[in-house]
Model the fold of this input.
Amino acid sequence: MITPRPTPPPRAPVTAARGGPTHACPGGCGRADVPFRLLACQPCWYRLPRDIRRALQAVKRHTPQHRDALEVAIGWYDANPLKGAKP
Ligand SMILES: [Zn+2]
Done:
């Protein structure tokens, strides 16, 4: 008698290119495959005002200044949700 194999659990919906670690996009687009070295997916990144993007790019990673810049960016996304996104 053959016992059916258990169904494997569903895989995570998307993996990033090259399989690196990923995180959910903070921009409200619903993507979950943003590589950790990036803040947001490309469309959401370019939704940020240029001065916020520049501020993030101007500071060294893993510093308090970078953390502050990230908080500004994520705060901007919170204040400017994607059109059509649920509140
Ligand atoms: Zn996004």
